[in-house]
Each structure stands twice: as C-alpha cells, then as structure tokens.
Design goal:
The protein has about 210 residues and is of the alpha+beta class. The chain contains four helices and ten strands; from the N terminus they run H-H-E-E-E-E-E-E-E-E-E-H-E-H. The radius of gyration is 20 Å and the shape is elongated.
Length: about 210
C-alpha cells in the first residue's frame, strides 16, 4: 500500500483512538456518522481503460450531507511515447491526487440510498521511463486539477457495509492536451463503504 495512503489511514485512526473516552467515541460516531470508502473509477478514454482507485474517509456534519478527503491514484498501465533530447522513449503514465469530497443525499429508502458526490482533486502526473538504463526517470511532471460530479446508488448488504455503483464525468482542467484527453471522460464507479457507527451499535447490542 502506498505510504501516503497509510498516512491518511493513520491520521484517521489516530484521531478516533485519542478521543478521551470510549463514550465520546461512540457519541461522535452516532452524531457524525463517519465512513470509510474504497472506490474505483473507470473510463475508456483514448480507446483504453483509464482506471483510478482510491480511499476516502469522512463524516456527516449535517443531515443528508457527507464530506471527506481522499487519496486516488492511476491503476492502469498506460504507455506513451515521449521525446527527450531528440530521443523517442516509451514511458508509463503515473498520477496521484488528493481530493475533497462532498456528497449530498438525494433519496433514502430502507437499505437504498441515492447521492450526488462531487470530487475536487489536485495532484501530480508524470511519465516514468521504462528503461532504467537511460537514467532519465520522471518525465514531463505536471500539476493536475480534476472535478468529478457523479450520481451514485448505494445498497447496504449489512448494517455496516454498503456497495455502490455510479456514473459521472471526470474533468481534467490542467495539463497538456494528451493528459486532458486521457483523464477527461465519462466514468463509472464501484465502491465499498464501511460505517463504524453501525459497528459500535452492533457491539453495544451484543453486550
């Protein structure tokens, strides 16, 4: 697992583990309904799969709204040709980004939910020379800004676990034309969401 993801999870766990009392932890979970989301966003821009995976953590500051922060990375193997000092090289595209997430709840009925999450992300993309003998390393590093509105349907298979599927559009508003064409496209998303609030409730019921 990428070290940045470990840091994100550690910060989240550190915060909750250092609340003064177990009662305060339970009260926070019941009031603000924290969640953990594992997600993959998939598209077929440039006639190839462009898939991103990520982890988000967050909570509900008010009813019918979740907010959070996440870390996402490009999981597809995308190989392009790049020109460096008049030499043409085969290089693999890499991308990492942090994203803020706002998720208004549109509809809820029993185990079903419909929401309209919005991701606003910032990160870096670059090409890695596939031949280490060249000694070039990272090529054409750029900053990328992405906006991603979606419509998502979620179903709770258990009280504390939900499965989600959704669709939307990913806008890459910075970078060269090739990277804009790569990341800007319609997407579909699959996710698993965990609700610690329900875990605490189940533990209390078992006592």
């Amino acid at each position: 697992m990428n070290s940045l993801i470990k840091k994100l999870v550690f910060i989240w766990l550190f915060f909750f583990s250092h609340l003064s009392m177990a009662q305060e932890l339970k009260s926070f979970a019941q009031t603000y309904k924290p969640y953990v989301l594992f997600e993959t966003n998939n598209s077929f821009s440039r006639d190839k799969g462009v898939n991103m995976q990520g982890l988000s953590v967050g909570f509900s500051p008010i009813e019918h709204l979740r907010v959070g922060i996440g870390y996402y990375w490009l999981s597809s193997d995308i190989i392009d040709t790049r020109v460096v000092s008049s030499d043409t090289l085969k290089a693999e595209l890499s991308m990492r980004q942090f994203a803020l997430r706002a998720e208004p709840l549109i509809y809820k009925y029993e185990a079903w939910q419909v929401s309209s999450p919005l991701h606003i992300g910032i990160g870096n993309s670059y090409y890695d020379d596939r031949n280490p003998d060249n000694g070039i390393g990272k090529i054409d590093k750029q900053t990328n800004y992405m906006i991603q509105p979606m419509l998502v349907v979620q179903y709770k298979i258990l009280k504390w676990v939900g499965l989600s599927i959704g669709s939307g559009y990913r806008f890459n508003i910075a970078g060269d034309k090739q990277r804009k064409d790569t990341f800007s496209s319609g997407i579909y998303a699959l996710g698993i969401k965990i609700f610690p609030e329900e875990i605490f409730r189940s533990a209390k019921a078992d006592q």
